[in-house]
Each structure stands twice: as C-alpha cells, then as structure tokens.
UniProtKB/TrEMBL annotation:
SUPFAM superfamilies tied to this protein: (Trans)glycosidases, Glycosyl hydrolase domain
Naturally occurring in which organism (per UniProt): Paenibacillus cellulosilyticus
Record bears the keyword Kinase: no
Protein name: Glucosylceramidase
Segments forming domain Glycosyl hydrolase family 30 TIM-barrel: 64-327
Amino acid sequence: MTNHEVEVWISSELDPGRSRWFEGPHAPDFALSPQPKLELTPPSPSTASTIIVKPDHTYQQMLGIGTSLEETTIHNLSKMDADQRAAIIRQLTDRENGIGFNLFRLTIGTSDFTAEPFYTYNDLEEGETDFEMKRFSIQKDIDLNIIATVQELQKGSPDTVFFASPWSPPAWMKTNGSLKRGSLKEGAEYTEALARYYRMAIQAYEQQGIPIYAMTLQNEPLLEIDYPSCYMSPARQKELAAALRREFEAHGMKTKLWIFDHNFHDAWDYIAPILNDEEGRTVVDGLALHDYEGSPAIMSELHAAYPDKPIYLTERALWGTAGADRMAQYFRNYACSYNSWVTMLDSEIGTHQWVGTPGPTMFVQDAVEPNRYWKTPEYDLLAQYARFVQPGAYRIESTYGSTDTVTNVAFRNPDGSLAAVVINQTDSEQPFRVLCEGKQFAAVLPARAVGTYVWRG
C-alpha cells in the first residue's frame, strides 16, 4: 500500500440471525472480499454522502475485539479431530488469513452455555463449608479440555488477552444453596471467602500459563434465573471489589477489576453508587457492559462522569449490517472492546442450557459429522473490524453519516494506518466519499454490506 492508495475489503449480510444457518452453509455475495484499490486524490465537489475523518482528534484506545471460549464452544471443538480444531483456532486469531481476534472471554466455573452439569471450583455437599478453600480445584476445567484449548490458542497467538467472568459463587456461599438464582450470604466472612475463591481461580489459570488481564465480579448481577446466576447489589459488589483488591495486592497480582457486566439500561443506577464512593473509585479499574436493554449512549455519559474508568462491551451477539452498525455505535460511545457471546453451536443448536433459543454463531458444527462445520456471514462481518483495527488503536473523529446512506466509525492504528469501517444497511448500493487531511477517496458500497477502508495517515 502506497501513500496514495486505499485498500478495501467488503462483506455482506445474508438472512441475518435466521435459524436456516443451523441447516447448512450458504454463500453471501461478499465474504471479506478484497476489492480493487482506490486512489487518494485532491478534494473535489461531490453530491455523494461525505464522511469527514480527523485523525488528530482521538478518543479511547482499543483493548481488542473477540469472542468467548465458554464450555459449549470448547465441548464442540473437543469433538473434532486435532487438525480441524486447530484450523478453527487459526481462523479466530490469524490477522492475515483469519478474523484476527485478540480478546477472549473465559468463564470462572460454568455458565449457561455448557454441555455439562453446572459446577464451580469448590462444590460441596449440602451443609458443608470451606472458607479456607482447601478443596478448591480447577480440575474440571482441565478434564473438559478448557485449559488445553486455551493453551492451544495461545501457541498460535501469544499476544492474546483473556478476561474472565463468574456466573455464580459456589452454592454453599449462597442464600438458597444453589448455583441457580439466590445471592451471596450476608457477612464479611462470605465476601472474603468469595474474594479468596476468585483470587485462587486467577492464580490457578496463571499456573497453567494463562494470564488473566481482567475479571468481572459477577455476570449480570441484577439477574436471577434458572441457570448459574447471583443477585449482587452495588454495595455488595463494592465490598467484593475491595476484598478482591486486597487479595490481589497481598499476592502480587495485577489482574484488573471491572464492575457491573450487565445492561446499558441499569448502568447508571448500579455504577454510580460504587464509583461515587472513595474506596470504590480506588479499587475499580473499568466498567463492563452488555447490550440487551438500553442505549449505547449511556457509555458516553459514563465516560464523561468517570473518564478514568475505561468501558468494555463484554457480551452481545449481533447479526447483519444492523449488528455492524451497532458495533460502530459502541465504539463511537467509548467502548474500548467488543466481545461476541458463544463462538460455535452445532446444527441442533447445542449444547447449551440457556432458557431461550440462541441465534446462529460464527461457526456451526454438523451435529452428525463433528469434523464438518461452516461459517456464517457474522464471521466475516466481525472480521471487517477485528482484522483491521489493531490492538492499541485509537478511535478518531469521523462524522457518523446516516442509516439512509452509510454510517461509519474510524480508527488510527499503532502502525500509522487509518481504518474506516463503513456500513450500508439499505437495499441499494451507496456512493460516498471520505475527506481526510486534505485528500479524499470515493467509493460505492454494495447493498446490505460492510466495507473496511485502510490507508496511510
């Protein structure tokens, strides 16, 4: 790529979110398809939609983009031959020939997306307790190939970043004695025991050569439901964060603590009581949010209120060009990351224990022939971001555009390149131009497609 060229890749949607993707593969018009290079030219008048990009006006720095390695995905991977499993891992992490993910979400114990009976790392008989964690063990994660799969991913992508989330404390710590529903029992001894449990989980992974960059304190703390879950009030989460910080400091650990890990709609009411408290503000490193209710604009409000606390979009599944535009809105509202939820279900939509019916995942495995699998368009649509927005990139100023024509978000990469992800949600091709630093380029984006445009700043 010369200083006068713009490299272009395009992917298109096809039946986004439809169950037909569990039936077999289908070919979209564009699948991370390289296009002829465009030319940067002197500016000239144009009637096309115009995107103005200002690389010197920077916003948040990106930690990364990725997906989850929950037990459902690993269970399905484990049914494959080693070569097929390795091929999928390469496609997830390879920036040249794959999607280029660098950020993966792990679960501390089991989540609802698992083929196994629900478990934690300290499951006891009813009436028993273990405050000193003498019976703590991650052996189930070893037996279920979770550790081995993560290690295999690390070999091919040593700079990968992992963060972890728990769905429930051990049942003996909870008010109802169950991994489902309930809350953490009252009393400092339970707060401290849970902090010890989480510290030991992070240490156990580190002993396996898997460093955990950050952890959330409770997945969806306002949800009690019939899979691993635990209600946790803001006050209790602040107490847990403080106790966990003490545990980490006492053991020389650098893992960061992200609070909340739930929906935009409830973010203010949950986060403000923690960060408006002096101790809470001190022990918390970042904010984790999900997008199942509410508006991404809440993240801009939180950034203005707490500018020293980075924001991470830790869970959502998105489909089609509408999903690609939703991602653009995350980043335009200060999200430093995005993680998709669940990487591979099989053609029978298995195996999971969620209470609903999931939509199609990036990879779908044939339930009859486990070595056979296919990709959905979401793989390529996510790659339009992940392959070209490098870790450490900064979001830069760009005019958003319109859903009636094209929308976008733009970044400046550590290598000096600029990347604009442009989305066309309409049923017709859309011409547009980009004006940047005294130059312009003109392009036409096909209907229902996403284009990534990369050039030298």
